[in-house]
Write a structure and sequence with these properties.
Largest sheet of chain B: none
Distance between the termini of chain A: 28 Å
Number of domains of chain A: 1
Number of helices of chain B: 1
Helix content of chain B: over 70%
Oligomer: heterodimer
Helix content of chain A: over 70%
Distance between the termini of chain B: 78 Å
Strand content of chain B: under 5%
Order of helices and strands of chain A: HHHHHHH
Number of strands of chain A: 0
Chain lengths: 250, 55
């Protein structure tokens, strides 16, 4: 009974977690469909100065950035928790978040370039904010390479935690850059002393409502990816332990 | 002017295509990883059972 009970309880717990993840996934897919209708049908067109119809890229560009940069903060938080507790579950969460961060930073950069071409008349410029964003993508990739290069599980978790915490310092820097320095990248929300920005536009209430919906949708997508990836990492570790046990028995 | 007539619409559709495409690729990668883990799990279970029977 002793050996059966924890397994069955764990299996039931695992099933309920999987059901919740699936429910989040279904909700995220539905919200994504609604968000696309809002962006393409309900959102007002931009003026020529902000890219005309290309201005609608803004909704998913900002939402991608929200997740891309937010994922760094989650990785850093999980790193802090790992260093406090030495519980590898926090390391798995940090890993999953960084992987999703790579995805969304990449889409942020690509969608930004696709907006920049008709608005700034260039795909790319070595503006401080843009360069810092590209650097953040490279830092994410380096984080994953660091993890891939270390065999020892605890050493890997420790090094990755420290790297994740240091890397997260670039997130507030990126946020502030287009507000306190001269940058071509517009600061759509909040106060800014940036006079060099190009392609900015007024944020009317209908745009704000659509943007908030897109941000919530992307957060749901992040949650779905995050929970799915953490579950896979748990299984990978459990399988690795079973393989090691089999090899030890031989 | 309708959305499709705007000369910048191609950038709009490409951007959304890239974002949705990237999310689809990641979803497919998760599915593939899960399928591979299921296979590994099954294989390991068979080996473990053979080990048990051998003992």
């Amino acid at each position: 009974m002793e050996s059966v009970l924890p397994t069955s309880v764990s299996a039931a717990h695992s099933r309920s977690r999987e059901s919740l993840t699936r429910a989040i996934g279904v909700a995220a897919a539905g919200m994504l469909a609604v968000a696309l209708v809002m962006v393409f049908v309900l959102a007002p067109s931009g003026d020529v100065r902000s890219g005309g119809e290309a201005q609608r890229i803004f909704y998913f560009h900002l939402s991608s950035a929200w997740i891309g940069f937010g994922a760094w903060l989650v990785t850093a938080f999980c790193g802090v928790r790992y260093l406090q507790t030495r519980d590898l579950q926090w390391d798995r969460r940090a890993h999953a978040s960084a992987e999703i961060g790579v995805l969304f930073i990449t889409t942020t950069l690509l969608s930004g370039m696709l907006w920049g071409r008709p608005t700034w008349n260039t795909w790319w410029t070595w503006d401080f904010k843009l360069t810092l964003s590209a650097l953040q993508l490279l830092m994410y990739l380096a984080y994953l390479m660091l993890r891939g290069g270390l065999e020892n599980v605890n050493q890997r978790a420790r090094f990755a935690s420290v790297y994740g915490i240091v890397g997260a310092l670039t997130v507030p820097l990126n946020f502030l850059v287009s507000r306190v320095l001269q940058s071509i990248h517009p600061a759509v929300f909040g106060p800014s002393v940036n006079a060099a920005q190009q392609g900015g536009f007024g944020v009317s209430m209908d745009r704000v409502v659509i943007l908030i919906f897109c941000l919530v949708t992307f957060t749901m997508i992040y949650l779905f990816f995050f929970r799915s990836r953490v579950a896979l990492l748990e299984r990978e570790d459990a399988l690795a332990a079973r393989k090691a046990a089999l090899l030890d028995a031989e | 002017m309708s959305l499709l007539e705007d000369k910048n619409a191609v950038y709009l559709f490409t951007a959304y295509g890239v974002i949705l495409g990237a999310m689809t690729v990641y979803l497919a990668a998760l599915w593939l990883r899960r399928r591979n883990l299921d296979r590994d799990d099954e294989l390991l279970r068979q080996i473990e059972e053979e080990e048990q029977q051998g003992k």
